[in-house]
Amino acid sequence: MSLTIGQALEKERKIRHLTEKEMAGDIFSVANYSKIERGLQEIRAQDLFKLILRNNIDWNDFVSEIGIDLNASQSYRLEQNMSEKVDKAFCAKDSETASELNGIIQNSSRDVCLCVKAIMVDLALSKGFSKLDPAIHDKVIKKILMNDSWTKDIDSLKLLCNTMLIYSDDELCFFINSILRKYKNIEDYSSAYQYVVGLICINYLDNCYRRKKTFKLEEVFNLFNKLPNMPNLFFLKVLAKYYRALLSNDQRTVDKIYRFCIEYGYDKYFTESIKGLID
Fold first, then answer.
1. Does residue 165 surpass a pLDDT of 90?
2. What gap in Å lies between CA 242 and CA 254, rounded to an integer?
């Protein structure tokens, strides 16, 4: 018979011979933690992950214990919740929270895209990409290219988008060339593909600016010209104009777009080296 989350936490606590205070640490008061074990108070996904990480509980074993208490839909919502928190930490330049979330996600999630995204944000805000384990670089590339039709696979595209900063110039040229060939008629694709491909191209332009490269620039800008004028694509098209101005030394346009973004609270997107991390 499956356990509730509270019952499973109690079981794990007693296996470790911990008091409720020791199990809860600084995550909960003893009173609130006691209510969780007794099923009198719900626990948020992030706090559950914190408890599991703090007490070195195996996530897979824990999920097996609670069984139907955490179904596929709930698991998906947990992943989405964590992904949104990573986005917020990045936008707020909160390196401490990003590092904490990365630790939680690496120990609890089976979603490769989310795990890599958490690593990228953590490195961007604190350690720098020179600290990236080369094995992760190789694993990501293999994950993207394992599907012969990777340019049509939305998860492969998202993974590429979130890892643009870790590739060499030659690798970037290969990826952007493949994307441009596949999506030369981007206007004919669904909005989901338009958005992800647009983000990939924004991250590519960011790399071009920082690395002083010009490979396929006009084709990338032409892709943005083909994107429909839809609300969900508005900011991507603004960013594309910003990078065109940067790369052509059009300081007047750069300043104009930057002032616009400051006015509406989006200026942080122009002060970080990563743009467009996605769910």
1. no
2. 6
Q: How does pLDDT run across 190-223, given as a tens digit for each residue? A: 999 999 999 999 999 999 998 999 999 999 999 9
CB 67 within 8 A of CB 2: yes
Instruction: Give the side-chain half-sphere CA count within 13 A for 240.
Output: 22
Write out pLDDT tens, residues 15-26.
999 999 999 999
Structure-token match 């929270």, residue found: 97
Give the Å distances, CA to CA, from 59 to 1, 53, 72, 100, 110. 18, 9, 15, 17, 10
Q: Looking at the predicted structure, is the pLDDT value of residue 61 above 90?
A: no
Counting every residue written for the chain, the total comes to 279
The residue behind tokens 């989901």 is 192
B/e letters for 229-259, b = 16+ CB within 10 Å, e = fewer, are: eeeebebbbebbbbbbbbbeeeeeebeebbe
Q: Each residue of 85-117: pLDDT tens digit?
A: 888 888 888 898 898 888 878 876 667 788 888
Q: Which two tokens stand for residue 268?
A: 């942080």
Distance CA 169, CA 160 (A): 14
The amino acid at 78:
L
Q: How far apart are alpha carbons 68 and 100 in whole angstroms?
A: 28
Read off φ and ψ for residue 59, nearest 5 degrees.
Answer: -65, -45
User: Whole-angstrom Cα distance, residue 151 to residue 179?
Assistant: 7
Among candidate residues 12, 8, 3, the one with its CA nearest the CA of residue 57: 12
Distance from CA of residue 173 to its chain's centroid? 23
**Is the distance from CB of 79 to CB of 133 less than 8 angstroms?**
no
Q: 277 near 90, Cβ under 8 Å?
A: yes
- Compute the mean pLDDT over every residue in the chain, rounded to the nearest whole number: 85
